[in-house]
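Lecture 7 notes: from sequence to structure.
We start with the chain below.
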Amino acid sequence: MFALRRVIPIVTALFAAAMTVSTSNDATVAFPGPPDLTLASWMWNNNTLNTGFPAGSSAFRLTFHPSIEFPVANISVAISTDNAYSLYFNGTLIGNALDWTKPNVWTINNVPSTGPWVFAILATNYFDASLNPAGIIASFRASNAALQAFYIWYTGQIAIPSVVWKAMFPVPDGFANPTFDDSAWPPAVLEAPYGGGPWGNLATPVPASLCI
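Predicted structure tokens for the same chain:
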């Protein structure tokens, strides 16, 4: 099993030193820093230009197959969701939050690199009588300190064709199960890059304050 802890981001870095992986956002620096949201984009399950999203919950899934073999990896996730989310990894609840203005970082330790890695998000949009936007923005980093190699990818900026965020409304039962069949789900729709849309620039991610 993997272990869970909470961390605070310190610096922004994209790293692929000892081994290079194929994402559009890889760069080479001294050592990887915690994940960052500034290169990510907001996404949701339909495209209504950030207006008129119905209240309720939507399900999102991404399946990633690592191509680098190492004993274990540590995965960090920086995430914000308008309005609230529950984050799952391989069927296990990692954490949740209720305030999109305060992004969180979650770290999942000692993950086998054999994969697949299945990320699932239950995202809830609250009712608002006026402008009622909804969106998810997230950054994911998988690293191995001994090998100094990692994957880093973002919502909206993935260059691997087989790695696609999928979205469904309403939420199907068991959607977070890693063996759940999401082959019929449509892809998530990009809304705006970081800093755009109704959200603007976000606060620095903070340790998660609510976990069940």
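Points to note: The chain has one domain: 3-207. Residues 1-31 have pLDDT under 50 and may be disordered.
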